[in-house]
Amino acid sequence: MNKIYYLASCDTCRKIIKSLPNMDKLEFHDIRQNPITEDELEEMHKLAGSYEALFSKKAQLYKSLGLKVKNLKEDDFKKYLLEHYTFLSRPVFIIDGKIYIGNSQPNIHAVTQVLK
Asked: What is the model's pTM?
């Protein structure tokens, strides 16, 4: 099943979801209500190529914990992604074995095209 990892309370995620065609082709996974598991993160990592690619450096927690000035390694990114949902760059789509990370216009356009 194709999946979207999102945050239900995120206005951007809600706006993107409303704009998607054929939403019934997606399994919805609210990462606050149902935190991602290590197995799910491993699947994302395998498709993305790194934990850093999945990590949001825009998260307020990233700044408040002072992570911006630390030299984070892949193991650190993994640890933080599993510790708190806010570190996942949202939304994350896994569609037909391909991953789409984040809310950039080109990314959302690609997801829309794949779901048509």
From this structure: 0.94
